[in-house]
Specification:
The protein has no helices and 16 strands. By secondary structure, the protein is mostly beta strands.
Length: 207
């Protein structure tokens, strides 16, 4: 039941179905009655999702989860049930089942393109220690060595890979190949005839 001193009464139905509406009006002791049958149709409100930020080069498919809608009208004029987003903007959709309508919008942003750089491939002689660090500061670091710090110190040859996340949690990766030249082996060979002559023999490096 609902009561009002105004000519209009608002009432919220909790479920769909057929209902009988009966209105009693009182004026100067006189009662007037109005009786009507109504049908409340269930219509799920449209929700495209929260405003979001995508990484550079990514895409997003906007679509409804409900199959109750019969018609679709996007802000770009298309009438498909889904829309592929590749550019930033404010996108809206209006849906209808022939009786009821609902509309929602979503703001889509894109992060900037970036490339992490940890150095050029390089070669070291003998024993070495080399510091690897990216060209800029980032939100998160993940080395293939298991380290999560922005800088690591390496002393072995191999490939080192760094994956970073920027402030928008977008990823970029770079790798560096480090090779090592071993110290050459020097062998002294004495002449068996003349001990005053000394020959040096250098053996090439073997990988």
């Amino acid at each position: 039941k609902a009561h009002s001193t105004l000519p209009r009464i608002n009432y919220k139905y909790n479920d769909s179905g057929a209902y009988t509406v009966q209105v009693f009006g009182f004026r100067k002791g006189i009662i007037d009655t109005l009786k009507r049958g109504v049908y409340i149709r269930y219509f799920k409100p449209l929700f495209l999702g929260k405003d979001t930020t995508l990484c550079y080069g990514d895409s997003l498919v906007l679509q409804t989860k409900s199959k109750l809608y019969g018609s679709y009208l996007w802000s770009d004029g298309s009438t498909n049930s889904s829309l592929l987003i590749k550019q930033p903007g404010n996108y809206s959709l209006e849906v209808s089942d022939g009786f009821c309508k609902s509309k929602d919008s979503i703001l889509v942003k894109f992060g900037t393109k970036f490339k992490v750089f940890i150095g050029n491939d390089t070669v070291f002689c003998y024993q070495f220690q080399h510091v690897l660090s990216p060209n800029k500061l980032y939100k998160h670091y993940n080395w293939n060595t298991g380290d999560s710090s922005s800088t690591i110190v390496v002393n072995k040859k191999g490939e080192y890979i760094l994956t970073v996340l920027d402030s928008a949690s977008c990823a970029s990766a770079d790798s560096i190949q480090i090779n090592q030249l071993n110290k050459p082996k020097v062998e002294l060979i004495y002449d068996t005839v003349n001990c005053q002559n000394i020959f040096l023999k250098l053996e090439p490096q073997k990988d």
